[in-house]
Design a protein that fits this description.
By secondary structure, the chain is of the alpha+beta class. The chain contains 14 helices and 12 strands. The N and C termini lie far apart (49 Å).
Length: 416
Amino acid sequence: MSSVSTNNLIALADCNNFYASCERCFNPQLIGKAIVILSNNDGCVIARSAEAKKLGIKMGAPFFEIRHLTISGELLAYSSNFPLYGDLSARVMHLLKSHAQEIEIYSIDEAFFTLPKLNDIMQYCRSIREQVRQCTAIPISIGLAESKTLAKIATTQAKKSHDGVFLIDSSNREELLKNTPIEDIWGIGRRLSKKLQNYGINTAWQLAHSDDKFLLSHFGVCMLRSCHDLRAIPSISLETEKTAKQSIRVSRTFPQIINDITTLLQQLSFFTDRACQKLRREKQKALYIDVFLEGPYPKRKQLSMRYYLDEPSDYTPDFIRAAELVGQKLFDFSEIRKAGITLHHFSSQDSWQQEFFSQVRDHKKQTSLMHEVDQINLKFGTGSLTYLSSGKREFPRGTRLSPRYTTSWDQLPKVK
């Protein structure tokens, strides 16, 4: 057994090849086959199965470059089915919560959690994996360590383990850190890894033994916390409470070039509607909106502008009007390949500063109207009720979309 107390361990559960695993849940014939999941409009690869990775398919690869593999039968491609993925993720997290003392849902397919004091924590984690597999058909790997950063490394090792569980303790930590490249450490991206390498820090072990004052002065407190985490000194705590978002962004790369103002304004209206729906789900109001337009490759000319409202709002028509005004000012009859909007400067729906000289409005009526619109879209599906200014939606569902097996009565799997 390990030389660390189970009371001090942090576990990280990571769903293996999550999107591909979701597609396999109701279609077992896909098990063992190379699968990729495509972005909106089937544009590029956003997820790959292990078999697809072995074919050399890169994340973000344009679909047209690998389409020939689907024609030859070497590869299967599916449109992103986010309602299915989100529902299966919620089921996995619900099961993990039933075992955890504390849990931080880090992403759609990852969660940090702590466990009660146990005699055989490895066997207990194996039983968690088996329960998740039996109840959801989603395979997970669990890494255990004394800090979140080490738990990330442990989960990478767990994916290679025969039983999907791996523990980092004092007996194996040095060897693992010496064999972990600096760019593979959680929270250290390409830019920071290059800067660290310039100072001769190439592995997790070297980072763990770097001078604290040096790291703090050259890289800041976040890097210092990562360093302490690698020393098995927990410095990054579990975030068990959901933190409010600081901004909400909706953007798209268009399937065809846009060169007319009417189509552009329709798309900006559609983006704004989606963003405001997310804003209300967060129970927030926003004060201003950023709008940007981007031209095609290779120049990728970009224009942007900000519009402030008189007071914080979650009323969609306020932001649609603002987005249209900005869009009209930015549009210069040039070709547009990508556009988007971002809502900023949030205030709580229950507590926000009203502008003294702003136009008098019936906030209660507006809130009630938005609530009814959201409820209709929740009951009958996103896009059931839209704004006339959005026109026809320019982003149809992917042509390779699997059924929404768990979230639509009409698409429930049938037993013959």
